[in-house]
Amino acid sequence: MNSLTGKLCVGLVCLFCSVLTPNITLSAEKEVDVTIGALVNLTGHEAGQQIGIEQGIVDALAWANRHDYVPGVNLVIDWVDSGSSQSKGIEGYIKVTKSRRKPLCWIGMNTGIAEALVTRTAGDKMPHIEGGISRKLISPPQWTFCLLQPFDEQAAAAINWFLESWKKPTPPSMAILTWDNAYGRAHYTPQLEKYAKSKGIKIVTQQYVPTSPVEVKSQLIAIRDSGADFTFGGMYAGPWAVVLKDANSLGLSGKIQFISSWATNSVEVLNLTGKLSENFAITISLAEPEEWKGKIVEQIFNEANRGEASKLNMYSLGVQSVAVACEAIKRAVTKVGAKDVDQQAVYDALQTIDNFDPWGASPPVTYTKTKRYGLDQVKILRIENGKRIIPDQYISAPKLED
Predict the structure, then answer these.
(1) 71, 4 in Cβ contact below 8 A?
(2) What distance in Å separates the CA atoms of residue 129 and residue 303, rounded to the nearest whole number?
(3) Core-most of 176, 240, 267, 289, by most CB within 10 Å?
(4) Whose CA is closest to 385, among 311, 279, 304, 310?
(5) What angle in degrees, to the nearest 10, is found between the helix axes of 151-164 and 190-198?
(6) Residue 379: strand pairing partners
(7) What's the pTM value of the predicted model, to 2 decimals?
(8) For 172-236, where are the alpha helices, taking DSSP H only?
(9) Phi, psi of 205, rounded to the nearest 5 degrees
């Protein structure tokens, strides 16, 4: 190699390094990886009806990183499949929190698993952002922050809605019809019983349905014989399809008003039951796909290039959970710095979230030092003439005192 060629090569190498080095250095200084743990039912009996949550989480986290929502921070998800099982959920939580890359906070999607973990997460000082909800999770306030409103307060909103159209001189009677698990049983509480009584309504029976029922005629017969005019409870679309089909076979369609809480996928109920879902109602808390237009949740969905089949209410829940987690991490980083952010800082930040818009996935979320559920509003979605009727406005859910 002659001297001229050698000098030229050295010059090119220097120029090349001078162009690349600033970017590499900037990236190293800017990027701090922080982990969010995610416990989702990817398998098991609940997995098929929780489709969309995992997609919403993945897409929302990618959007947050792409748009630098938390400056200086690269957000990473560490997944655990709970398998719709408390034991698997606890085992997965322990595995991830004891790993080298300990998460700053935890996202969960199962009331029963959350109840099993509530004392452990508090002892571990691990902020827990939870899609399920029950009185056990929010009172007394610990390290669990539920995304929605208590199921018994959704039931209270359903009572008010039903009373608006009640024309008879005597008050209606109410039945509890719900899943026989932690999520289902969270719908009936002493607080709800007290509220119903204040409205002149007697809860005449409580009927519990297996997780994967084949038939529920015995429960429906008990409800019929109790004289109930309407029911409230929580199940996914599959079990509700069994309820509505059995109700039709017993001649109860149109005679008893069936109302479910938010986790029921109304699109799936309609697809599974057709005309049998006429007048079925759901207290919804998350933005339905028709309500995404012009909001960040729609941007997230479109940028991920998801198909129409992925437009589900569960997708909104995935986005909402990440939005709340990212907002808490962002506030914590702003206060203590990206390199010093820890679980305590995120826990403190969660308690400052007030009227926060979770990227259009739900109404605004608010927590305080004592309030551990995010939402206070619902809509009552109805199925009428084969269509899902979604009200324009949310209504405040009654606050039930412990």
Answers:
(1) no
(2) 25
(3) 240
(4) 279
(5) 20
(6) 284
(7) 0.90
(8) 182-185, 190-198, 217-226
(9) -165, 155
Rounded to whole angstroms, how far apart are CA atoms 41 and 114?
Answer: 12
Please report, for residues 142, 225, 226, the alpha-carbon distance to residue 207 in angstroms, rounded to integers and kept in the order given: 31, 12, 11
User: Is residue 83 domain-resident?
Assistant: yes
Phi-psi region of 359 (alpha: psi -120 to 50; beta: other; left: phi over 0): left
Give, for 114, the enclosing helix (H) or strand (E): helix 111-124
Residue 135 shares a structural domain with residue 80: yes
**Which DSSP helix (H) or strand (E) runs through 107?**
strand 105-108
The letter for the amino acid at 214 is V
| Residue 18 included in any domain | no
Torsion sign over Cα 324, 327, 333, 339: positive
**Cβ–Cβ < 8 Å for 272, 295:** no
Q: What angle do CA 42, 303, 313 make, to 5 degrees?
A: 45
One domain for residues 343 and 313: yes
In a shared domain, residues 385 and 244:
yes
- Collect all residues with Cβ–Cβ distance below 8 Å to 200 and sequence separation of at least 6: 171
Q: Do β-strands 281-284 and 387-389 pair in parallel, antiparallel, or remain unpaired?
A: unpaired
C-alpha 341 chain-centroid distance: 25
Encoding tokens for residue 340? 């010093």
Token couple for 319: 């986005």
Number of helices (H), then strands (E), belonging to the chain: the values are 14, 13
Count other C-beta atoms under 10 Å from residue 288's C-beta: 18
Whose tokens are 């697809």? That residue is 271
**Both 164 and 266 in a single domain?**
yes
Give dist(CA 111, CA 235) in Å, integer.
12
Determine the structural domain holding residue 214 and report its residue range. 151-284+380-396
Task: For residues 315 and 357, state if they share a domain.
Answer: yes
Q: Which two tokens stand for residue 268?
A: 């799936």
Domain total in the chain: 2
Find out whether 55 and 47 touch, Cβ atoms under 8 Å: no
- What pLDDT is stored for residue 12 in this prediction? 35
Q: What are phi and psi of 378, to 5 degrees?
A: -140, 165
Across-strand partners of 187? none
Q: What letter represents residue 376's amino acid?
A: D
- Mutual angle of helices 237-249 and 217-226, in 10-degree steps: 60
Q: Which residues of the chain have pLDDT under 70?
A: 1-30
